[in-house]
Amino acid sequence: MKTKRLAAALVLALALAGCAAKSEQQTVADALGLDVAGGTLLAAGDTHGGFHGDGVSCIALSFEDDRLENQLAADPAWQPLPMDDTTRALVWGVEDETGSFGPLLADGEGTPLIPPADAGYYRLIDRHADQATPILERASFNFTVAVYDAEARVLCYAELDT
Question: Is 110 exposed, middle or buried (0-12, 13-18, 19+ CB in 10 A)?
Fold first, then answer.
């Protein structure tokens, strides 16, 4: 009887361990396919939850050397800054003669979660089921954006799901 209880407890412990939350570094590494070992967590927040899992998450990691920058420079999925118009609208917002749009990755007061960067790399991953409609014309959003500020050696990673 003791053996069965011990076995059941072990199975339960292993199952719960498998459900443990990933570290912020592992989340970024998995989502972006990067080696972020050695990155120091600067900030993290996540409002995802509820029935549909809508929300925004943001993670900022700093690096002491240029290993990450070298990785990004060699990866064709990453583009050098400045951002294209679509990504800039999502991350920092845009204003023109027709009005303003964004930023969508912002706090409750409209302040962008990702600080401006002049030099570095960025990546936009569109995770929406509707890939035919331009991203800025959709009624809902599911995307990941990452921005690496080469001067500050900071990688900001953010996801929005609506």
Answer: exposed
Contact assessment for residue 105 and residue 145, using Cβ atoms and an 8 Å cutoff: yes
- Can you give the pTM of this predicted structure? 0.82
Nearest CA to 57 out of 114, 140, 122, 118 is that of 114
E-strand spans in the chain? Answer: 40-46, 55-62, 79-80, 94-96, 99-101, 120-126, 142-149, 154-161
CB 157 within 8 A of CB 31: yes
Alpha helices in the chain (DSSP H): 2-18, 24-32, 67-74, 85-91
**Mean pLDDT of the residues in the chain:** 84
